[in-house]
Amino acid sequence: MTIEDVLSERRDDVAADSEEILQETLDGYGAGILVTQVQLQEVQPPEEVRQAFDDVVAASQDASRAVNEAEGYRNEVLPKARGEAAEIVEAAKGYRDAKIAESSGEAARFLAVEREYRKAPEVTRKRLYLETMEAVLPLVEKVVIEGGATQVLPYLPLGSRKGGDKQ
Predict the structure, then answer these.
(1) Are 19 and 35 in contact (CB under 8 A)?
(2) Quick check: 95 pLDDT over 50?
């Protein structure tokens, strides 16, 4: 065992091992003595190396402190990161489900339009054209003129006003 172990962490082991060795030695001599306890009173390194030993002990304590700080940081950051990751995953699942629902609705709408188109292709075609023009040109005033008309009737937009001014 190293001197560092004897002077710091494993004092109890040294005492127990010493008690066992001492008892075996006494039994070998037939001394008739029973050792009940070995207690290390004062364990100090020699004066010549005491400063170096103190430096080693301080470095060991610094290392333990650094490990404890790192574990504390890990215990703080890791659950937070796991929570954020779970939140991102759930948001992605929600986005996926919304897109699936939206796409399913659009597909159902398309199939409904397609069924109506098969029943009356000309009417459906005209309706789709007018709806598309309304969507493409939302701010433009639209006037629909029947094909073959020889004269354009005057148009008075009574239902809509731009700018909100009253007359």
Answers:
(1) yes
(2) yes
- Give the model's pLDDT for residue 167: 44
E strands along the chain, which residues? none
Please classify residue 94 by burial: count the beta carbons closer than 10 Å to its beta carbon, then call 0-12 exposed, 13-18 middle and 19+ buried: exposed
Residue 11 inside a domain? The answer is yes
Residue 126: its H or E element:
helix 121-136
Residue 4 counted as domain residue = yes
CA distance 33 to 19: 12
Residue 102 domain flag: no
What are 27's two structure tokens?
């039994």
- The domain tally of the chain equals 1
- Within 8 A by CB and 6+ apart from 116, the residues are 124
Least confident interval from 8-12, 76-80, 85-89, 109-113: 8-12
Distance CA 88, CA 67 (A): 31
User: Which residues lie closer than 8 Å to 101 by C-beta, 6 or more apart?
Assistant: none
Range of the domain at 20: 1-43
pLDDT at 84: 95
